[in-house]
């Protein structure tokens, strides 16, 4: 099983958790360019990953080779959330939202127009447009460039409408995608989550400090849900508001399992975590206030992920290294499973899509893998840098014991026999051979048990002899 991790210094590592090895290291370390989030470009495969950096740069990488496929820099600062979806084989849509509630939607043809290695069809299209004289523009004049060594750039606009810049010296092509702006809210935004409900509905949920959760429909650009705060406390004081995480229950399940388990409830059951050590459970069909609310000591929650076993369960992590599971079907404030041996703040949590395994990264620079039901830590890897986020591939998860068994079976197959069967037959033969000594053991015990009776006889004879001597002495005295 491979895990993709994002570090605080801008590196992305592909780790084999079973062997404990780093397979590929992507990117370069740079201060102030940490990875905020990584996500698969498409939900159907795990070959292309999208990464968001602290400096608002968004890169697309091939996960198998580590080659960068596309790169762009968003005009927004302090981006709090990112979502990428593949609308077709030729286009990608990237949604980013900053801390002021401004949403930018970038649309670009990533599969045809490759920044690192542009396709021949794309270059031929550019040359054709240049020959027609429709889109060739020189930036600057020849008189201004006489004293400069750098060659001018060409502004090219292909027939598809995307703005492209080609450097005449390096022949590097830069594509500026189409941008759509949408103002979601005027309050502070600490988190943004997008969820595709069906082919026509894409919802974006945002929340922040003094800003309750709001859900927007991107197609209609309207707010479809506004959460309300919980009632005042026993002193009639307003409860503080600071939501820093949102997740749709059931989003970790495949579409088929999700429909069987939830039906129409998907999209209506939402969970969010707060900076005031609270986990709130919303049902949009029932009310705007949370249905359940759970507390945990005095430390805020830093990570959250819906479970793949039960659609009503969620796993959360805290700032002091605690990670446990909640079940919203139980009204009591009770933790189901507690995952231990974490030293630093939990930064991100993910579930394996095909196995009951949960992974987490923390500030202590460890990647840990746990079994969901037994809560046993299966693997842990130290990765040198502080870890912020992770992704799990769809590879089949195999334990070390399973690998050893497979290797032993392969070795046995070389000799044309099954060693396990031979050892089993040898055990049966040994049992048959050992039947005779086992039957002789009671005889030995009888012989051993006869020795105490013999000692008793010898002791009684000595006593009788002493009595005879005493009697003789008495008779002699009487005479």
From TrEMBL:
Span list, region Disordered: 133-157, 426-479
Entry-linked SMART domains: WD40 (SM00320)
Gene3D superfamilies membership: YVTN repeat-like/Quinoprotein amine dehydrogenase
Biased composition (Acidic residues): 426-435
GO CC, one annotated term: preribosome, large subunit precursor
Coiled-coil intervals, chain numbering: none
Positions with biased composition (Low complexity): 448-461
Gene Ontology biological process terms, A to Z: ribosomal large subunit biogenesis
The name this protein goes by in its record: Predicted protein
Source species: Naegleria gruberi
